[in-house]
Amino acid sequence: MKSAVSSKSKTTTTAKKSIPAPYPRNMSGFHRWIRSFGLGSQVNLFLDNLAALLGAGVDIMSALQSIEEETSSRRLRVLVREVRDAIGQGVSFSTAISSLGSLPNRILTLIRSGETSGKLVENLRVISLQNEKENVFRSRVRSSLAYSVVVVLLMIVVGTATTVFTLPRLSAFYTESGVPLPLPTRILVSSGEFIAHYAGFVIPPVAIVFIAVVYFLFSFPRTRFIGHSILFRTPLIKHLIVNVEVSRFCYIMGTTLQAGVPLVDALDAAVSSTTFANYKKFYQYLRERMNEGFSFKRCFQEYPDAQKLFPSSVRQLIMAAEHSGMLDTSLLKIG
What we know:
Blueprint: H1 2-18, H2 29-36, H3 40-55, H4 60-70, H5 74-88, H6 93-97, H7 105-117, H8 120-177, H9 183-218, H10 224-232, H11 235-258, H12 263-271, H13 277-291, H14 296-302, H15 306-309, H16 312-324, H17 327-334
């Protein structure tokens, strides 16, 4: 009797060991970011290839296996294998592909919608077009900002060189002349003498403080809203930010609505597409109110800062498009 029980327990243990590991749903966001760091362009290429293979009639498991065998990136190969194994365990493609970590919510929304409606291939093609437009858009913004960045860097270099080399010589010249100097010049001379003696102790801490301030104002998630507020109050930069955000919002909303995504889900994708706190808050407001049955017109009228975030002409076009039932097409034109 005992041997039978023992044999049964051994069989159960062996069976448990043969069951594949469950899909890792509890992976932290930081862990996902580390695994997918630097794979953005390769993931986009992976989605393009997947759309092409599925459009040619290849089943998803064979398509994933083909991409896994052909990709030259070992890290992406591991991620694609995990997605294929997860689908083999019965997990949906949209849930499995979320393990890549680098995919924004707008892409996951289109994939989930494509799975539900049976238009996965069409939505993957929309994603491919979105990624292409986003890359062109970013390159244009970066080229627009390149001149400003070069000027700021030159200003920092010239200012540092003047502080280290020129001010000490001016200080020595005015000190040897013995001529009574006005207060601003005396301050300049004293600064030059101080820097001449303590440059090695002053410049590194100042540079560290400057880098830390820039990081906490514009990169650290909990405090970057302060830097965003400063940028949003700077005349020329504010105009650029508004144009960028309105263009991205309209294009993402237009493409997702044309792909058959519900309006509330499309707004959820728009929330994840921006890093500016004021726009994120406004998109969340739109999502909540649209879920309650509000119109764009009413949301624009009731939200206090809507006129600051969206130009009047854009608001009028969106309201007219909503009234005429051509919202997706008009949003794409605006974008």
